[in-house]
Amino acid sequence: MANDLWLGEVLEEGYAILQLHVFLRYYPFITNLDRQPDVTPGDLQTMSGTEQTPATPFGPEQERITAANAYAILRGRLELYGEKRDGRPVIVYDLDATLFDNRPRVIQILKDTLKLPEAQALVDSVRETISGITKDNLKYLLKETLNDHGVMDPEVTSWFQDRWFERFFTNEYVLFDEPLRGAVDFVQRLHDDGAMSIYLTGRDTPGMRKGTLQALANAGFPDPDGETCHLITKPTFEQPDPEFKYDAIEIIGGLGEVIGVFDNEPKPMNVLAGAFPDAEAFFLDTMHSPDVEPILPKIRVMQDFKI
After folding, report:
1. Which fold has domain 7-40+57-100+179-302?
2. CB 208 within 8 A of CB 202
3. First to last CA, the chain
4. What's the whole-model pTM score?
5. Is 161 exposed, middle or buried (0-12, 13-18, 19+ CB in 10 A)?
6. How far is CA 201 from the centre of its chain?
7. Using one digit for the tens of pLDDT, what is the confidence trace for 155-188?
8. Bridge partners (DSSP) listed for residue 283
């Protein structure tokens, strides 16, 4: 199987016969994931900085775990698996705000936007303010970031939102993402220990797959070779997330026994943890959308991947 894996290429003969079985098995979890709104310039869901949004998906009772302990748990699962059967058990990783920090992407977009001829009409104070924004004080919504820095003019914020939307979901700008602390080493260790690595992302195939493959290679993550490692992207930008997750879960389940899942968004996290109840589930406490729900009690919380 080539490393250009995407949903339309992996539906094997006989898949239609399995649809009712898959629907009945996963329906409770898939319906729990509300459809995310279509992305528009006014939505502007960028990666946040270190501040958590007011609503959090877990309380003090949720188990927190270090990356070293998470690695030890999964290493133990791998050893147990190897004693019983052949093949590679599966570990699923989200990309944005899980394996990758995409705040540098946002900062680069702001820098490049300030270089546009139209930006020269901005008053000097606004230009200086925006040029001084760093990844550590980005919020989830770009408009909130600009407002927090004193840029309140709706025409200005709308113009920056439009420029963000034009660039954020592209092969070119995804290359500015940086691996989360310890992520490359963590994933590579488990891959070398015998895990099949699955990158599951809402990034779309036409607009972001090429850049994502390059970003993975640049960072040193295991290569999606179509055998021991796969990259699963949405066939189209417009495809609703629940539909994508529905198809992706079936594909992932067909690749092997899932022993671990990682995500930073509560709803997809719950979907994966529910669909694969025997897997170890880890929530990355990096950022998440304002639309939250409590994560399942079985899910452990991690800060990063540094062992």
Report:
1. Rossmann fold (3.40.50)
2. no
3. 32
4. 0.83
5. buried
6. 5
7. 999 999 999 999 999 999 999 999 999 999 999 9
8. 263, 301
Question: Can you give the pLDDT at residue 52?
Answer: 40
Q: Which of 179, 191, 186 is nearest to 222 (CA)?
A: 191
Section 269-282 average pLDDT: 95
Q: φ, ψ for residue 295 (rounded to 5)? A: -80, 155
At residue 44 the predicted structure's pLDDT band, cuts being 50, 70 and 90, is: very low
Q: What is the pLDDT of residues 81-115, one digit of tens each?
A: 988 788 899 999 999 999 999 999 999 999 999 99
Burial class (CB in 10 A: 0-12, 13-18, 19+), 146: buried
Domain ranges of the chain: 7-40+57-100+179-302, 103-174
Strand pairing class (258-263; 90-93): parallel
Rounded to 5 degrees, φ, ψ at 11 are -80, 100
| HEC string for the chain | CCCCCEHHHCCCCCHHHHHHHHHHHHHHHHCCCCCCCCCCCCCCECCCCCCCCCCCCCCCCCCECCHHHHHHHHHHHHHHHHHHCCCCCEEEECCECCCEECHHHHHHHHHHHHCCHHHHHCCHHHHHHHHCCCHHHCCCEHHHHHHHCCCCCHHHHHHHHHHHHHHHCCHHHHCCCEECCCHHHHHHHHHHCCCEEEEEEEEEHHHHHHHHHHHHHHHCCCCCCCCCEEEEEECCCCCCHHHHHHHHHHHHHHHCCEEEEEECCHHHHHHHHHHCCCCEEEEECCCCCCCCCCCCCCCEEECCCCC
